What we know:
Keywords: Signal
Strand content: 15-25%
InterPro entries: RNase_T2-like, RNase_T2_His_AS_2
CATH topology: Ribonuclease Rh, Chain A
GO cellular component, one term: extracellular region
GO biological process, one term: RNA catabolic process
Structural class: alpha+beta
GO molecular function, one term: ribonuclease T2 activity
Oligomer: single chain
Amino acid sequence: MKIILLILLSQLLLVHSQESEDIIGYMYVFAQEWPGSICKFQKCTKTYMGNYDNARWNNHGLWPNTMLSTSCGFIQNCRDETYDENKLTVATKTLIDVTWNGMYSDTFTFRKHEWEKHGTCHPDNLTQNGYMSKVGNLNNQYNYYKILASVGIYPDNERQLTDTEFRAPFTKTLGISTAMTYTCQKDSNTGKFYIAEVRTCFTQAMKPRTCDCSKPVSAFVTCGKTFYYPTFSLSEQQQVQFEEIPDLTDAFLQ
């Protein structure tokens, strides 16, 4: 009970700090990461790629926020409910094994973090299965890879992109140019920017809306005038790591 009261108090203080604006509903930020860029800077392995099919971006999460008159308030850890993948149906588990993986860190831990920090704040009080299924299905509905491919933008290590051409297909899909925002990672050696994460914003009714309050993740930076959308493939060493793991496991079981 004390934990719940502390969480509620922190949320009230946070909302009050948002210039005492009235909450007029909820909004959602749906974030996906491009493995081709992320794995240039992190040690991704096949182990943590699950059943990723290289024909989509990888889910980061769906983040509920309180929607205010001119901005939004960040909310987190709303219910004390530990993540348990045994509560997921086979269909949901199959779905997120394709759409939502750790890439460079333990996938279960990543999903656990996203559920406990963000999923517990879903205003419809979705179950764990409901939330994970919703996020997985959003990846299919808003497949960033296909959205970009619809205007001829495919992963390419040489092609330089601008904000105008990168944003155009999202504007066509979402109907609002400001319903998406994105961040890059910068190669300190070459100075090149690589598109890392795209976020699309929705109302509580899941209609595209302007992103009022999206802030770059600390590891990301605002993209330069031009940036790259690189191809994705795991190195031979990363593939070998994956092959070795089951062999070691079998050895311990014998």
